[in-house]
Design a protein that fits this description.
Elements lengths: L4 E8 L17 E4 L1 E8 L2 E8 L8 E4 L11 E7 L11 E5 L8 E6 L1 H4 L4 H4 L3 E6 L2
Antiparallel strand pairs: 1-4, 1-6, 2-5, 3-4, 7-8, 8-9
C-alpha cells in the first residue's frame, strides 16, 4: 500500500529549561531513508520538509543519530498533507519514532493520520492518533 505524503517538521526537543533544542533544519545531522529533504518556510517558521522519493514507497525517515536521549519529553510541531499524486483513499501518516535500535529493526512510534482526524466517519476519527511498538 502506498501512502504518499508531505511532512514538515518544525522543531524537536525541549521541555525542561535544561533541555537541548535540536533544530532539524540542519540537514547534515540527519540520515535520510526513502525521502528527500529540504529546508523551507512554513507558516512563517523555518521548517524541514520531507518528500517521498519518486523511486518508490516506504517509510519516510529522517533519523537523528548523533544524540543520546533518555526518558524525557519530545516537543515537535508537525504538519502534513497528502501529495497531489495520492489517491482519495490514502490516509497519510506523520509521526515520531523513538527508542530506535541502531539497526532500525525495533522502535516505538506515535503518529497522527491527518485525513482521519478530519473525517465525517467516527470510526476513522477514532484512529487519528496511534502508537505502535515495532516489530511486535
Amino acid at each position: 500500500m502506498r501512502f504518499a505524503q508531505h511532512l514538515a517538521v518544525l522543531l524537536l526537543c525541549g521541555a525542561p529549561l535544561h533541555a537541548e533544542k535540536i533544530p532539524l533544519t540542519d540537514l547534515g545531522r540527519l540520515e535520510l531513508k526513502n525521502t528527500q529533504a529540504e529546508v523551507t518556510t512554513y507558516r512563517g517558521r523555518k521548517a524541514l520538509k520531507l518528500i517521498e522519493q519518486p523511486s518508490g514507497p516506504g517509510q519516510l525517515l529522517a533519523i537523528l543519530r548523533a544524540y543520546t536521549f533518555h526518558d524525557g519529553t519530545i516537543d515537535v510541531d508537525l504538519a502534513g498533507a497528502l501529495s497531489r499524486t495520492a489517491v482519495k483513499s490514502d490516509r497519510g501518516f506523520i509521526g515520531i519514532a523513538f527508542r530506535m535500535q541502531s539497526d532500525e529493526s525495533h522502535y516505538e512510534c506515535i503518529y497522527i493520520r491527518p485525513t482521519n482526524g478530519r473525517a465525517q466517519d467516527q470510526l476513522r476519527r477514532n484512529h487519528s492518533t496511534e502508537y505502535e511498538s515495532l516489530p511486535d
